[in-house]
């Protein structure tokens, strides 16, 4: 796994420079709660043999607004909507309530204090 | 009209997945297939709750499917029987205690037959459905008996025990038969 | 411009195995836009895997993510856990995993095909396909001990050995299955009514598949050559056992059916090769280590690429487990491919996507 660090501001530039639709496909967006910070990860994989997984990652604080990459990768909205609900983070252009019912405590995957 | 006879001969099944893993659902589908073939009991899978007699439910109830489950149950006409298929429909199974699950469908609707196993085998499902047929017949008979209600004297002090009251009513019913 | 109507399909519908809700906006029978709600069966398995179950138990829990491809899930998890504790499964275990994955692929593809036939209104073909499918269920029961939910892969290897009688039985049953498969191919290819219903329905182009990152038979039917079995060698030696990629060009329901049917021939070949060349070794690699670090694993499930990410913290519990199921990648394309089709063919199109919502929402 090939890890590339990025930041919230330069994320769209980095992914836009990296992502070629005929070479790579976007797999999923993930987040890991590290206590006070959240690590966000975007996984890409190429079509060739042997394939390699490339990860963009960045550390954010829970209330940061994360940019929406669905203008670069059109299918990313599903992963973003899921993550916004499960991790309770703010993602641009993404409404909450796609996964969880409104009567439920938000962010079940966050660490319980 | 021999409606009761016909109804006993061919009960229609409604299948609803309330959040299971598909395992029990494909076994229900296998029951409809040629090898196990529950059509020989006159059962067919109908997609319409208004025409069904037996509700086959799989899966622990997830938060988003609970209203649909109760809705589907409420739309079925009396008499109706509920069969819960699989460990997770009976008790929650491996999903018990997960944050988006309720433990088992009997928390929302009354269940008549519990079929165990993760996933339950087609033979078990057939057994459960045959059992449901007997219950369906009994429920049909019960519907035909007219119920006379008697006023129950209110006890002076202490609460009314609803279970005893219900038992008394059922007892009176049986004496009328 | 005609009047527009909104027609809902689901959450409970006879053509759906699982709760899934589509809202179609139609104009004169033509679907012009679609809205999907796929999270009816979200249970919270990822959280439970990190808080309630120890890492050796998790391989049984993730099998319950999906009953159709439970072996893919438990194998992918076992592999990612093996990476975290730094062991490698023995060669025989790898071969047995491949054997069960391919048997599982046969049952899953045939289920999907029978479902397409049923939703297109061809009840007799549904019955026929279900009848032929039973052989794979019986073989899976003989190999693993259960018809579904095999609990076959464990961390470090596999839980059961393949007995020689069972191997002989599989070979024998494959011999009777092969002409049945030919018959199915003939019906799906040449039946006039079925191909009228299937050809051109729910089509997606190669460019759209690429843009929307489609995986699995859905992508291969559109000509996008993506198959994890073709792309990795280190975890499971697919090419040693005779894997070959199957693609088609048109990307409609008919092409998806054909891709699935032709993949079954490859699966049969793989199973025969595995049984012929099963290496002798132990079944499980033992270790006392605890998971540490992070790892990713990709595996080809019947519906496409399955992806696992795990992070350990040197305790019995994992820190994070992320499951990306094949249908999850296809949701965006599923919504798009309806556009321009008639509402009447929607159930058959849904079945031909072969959606697995319990994988998607976990
Ligand atoms: S009982 Fe087991 S096999 Fe059946 S739906 Fe539940 S988890 Fe799946």
- Which stretches of chain C of 5+ consecutive residues score pLDDT under 50? none
* Helix percentage range of chain C: 40-55%
Count, helices of chain C: 14
The side-by-side strand order for the widest beta sheet of chain B comes to 2-1-3-4-5
Radius of gyration of chain B: 18 Å
CATH C-level label of the largest domain in chain B: Alpha Beta
Question: Which regions of chain B have little confidence, pLDDT < 50, spanning 5+ residues?
Answer: none
Bulk shape of chain B: globular
Number of folding domains of chain B? 2
Return the structural class of chain C: alpha+beta
The name of the CATH topology of the largest domain in chain B is Rossmann fold
Q: Oligomeric state of the chains?
A: heterotrimer
Number of strands of chain C: 8
Whole-number average pLDDT of chain B?
78
Small-molecule binders here are: iron/sulfur cluster
Largest protein interface?
A: B-C, 45 and 41 residues
Tell me briefly what this model is.
Chain A has 113 residues and is α/β, with parallel strands linked by helices.
Could you please describe the fold and organization of this structure?
The complex is a heterotrimer of chains A (113), B (177) and C (362). With 113 residues, chain A is of the alpha/beta class. Chain A has a single domain, classed as NADH:ubiquinone oxidoreductase Nqo5 subunit (Beta Polymerase, domain 2, 2-Layer Sandwich), CATH 3.30.460.80. Chain A has helices at 11-18, 76-87, and strands at residues 2-5, 24-33, 38-46, 53-60, 65-66, 90-91. In chain A, strands 1-4-3-2 form a four-stranded mixed sheet. Chain B is of the alpha/beta class and 177 residues long. Chain B folds into two domains: 3-144, 3-Layer(aba) Sandwich (Rossmann fold), CATH 3.40.50.12280; 148-177, no CATH class. Helix content of chain B is 39%, strand content 12%. Chain B contains six helices and five strands, in the order αβαββαβαβαα. Chain B has a five-stranded parallel sheet with strand order 2-1-3-4-5, sandwiched between helices. In chain B, helix 2 (23-32) crosses helix 5. Chain B starts with a helix and ends with a helix. The mean pLDDT of chain B is 78. The mean pLDDT of chain C is 81. Chain C has 14 helices and eight strands. Chain C is 49% helix and 14% strand. Chain C has a three-stranded antiparallel sheet with strand order 1-2-3. In chain C, strands 6-7-8 form a three-stranded antiparallel sheet. A two-stranded antiparallel ribbon of chain C has the order 4-5. In chain C, helix 6 (164-190) packs antiparallel against helix 11 (253-276). By secondary structure, chain C is of the alpha+beta class. Chain C has helices spanning 45-51, 58-61, 70-85, 91-119, 123-144, 164-190, 192-198, 206-211, 216-221, 228-231, 253-276, 326-337, 346-353, 357-361, and strands at residues 4-9, 21-27, 30-37, 153-154, 157-158, 292-301, 304-313, 318-324. The interface between A and C is medium-sized, with 33 and 36 residues. The complex binds iron/sulfur cluster (SF4). Iron/sulfur cluster (SF4) sits between chains B (20-21, 23-24, 58-59, 86-88, 93-94, 118-119) and C (64, 67, 148-149). Iron/sulfur cluster sits between chains B (20-21, 23-24, 58-59, 86-88, 93-94, 118-119) and C (64, 67, 148-149).
